[in-house]
Amino acid sequence: xxxxxxxxxxxxxxxxxxxxxxxxxxxxxxxxxxxxxxxxxxxxxxxxxxxxxxxxxxxxxxxxxxxxxxxxxxxxxxxxxxxxxxxxxxxxxxxxxxxxxxxxxxxxxxxxxxxxxxxxxxxxxxxxxxxxxxxxxxxxxxxxxxxxxxxxxxxxxxxxxxxxxxxxxxxxxxxxxxxxxxxxxxxxxxxxxx
Length: 194
Known about the structure:
By secondary structure, this protein is an all-alpha fold. It has 6 helices and no strands. Helix 2 packs antiparallel against helix 3 and helix 3 crosses helix 4 (111-136). The chain is globular, with a radius of gyration of 18 Å.
């Protein structure tokens, strides 16, 4: 009787934590979406021109800057770590869009189309996070932010290798799965650095 009560209370507590995570995740994604929409206004979907390798390099420099700031504990340009996590989220979603649509020489989608694609991939990433978070029991909350950075850099290295193999992997997840993991780790980083 006592044990079943413990199990019931534990499950209830985990459900509350998962709901909290979902709300925090959605809040960060609203922030990212707002920034993405404002940049669309200013630049349109200029990122449509990015080839996969260029997008990977953009992700790399953002993650590398986070790691540099974590180690040096000082920013000479004034922006901190959190805006870089936000950028990783938005570039990760751009990556998912680019995987679907391919790159082009000119902007070929409207801002409304770009936002529709953004929302679709943001929602898919949220759903993946919820499934993984359920299975891992909120483990991300006990992790250090620097670990998210290292995992993101590892995912970027994996993407580079997959690109070098022209996508021909033997057993590995594809680039899309790595983008989604980058987004999720970056969301966790944005939550923890707020």
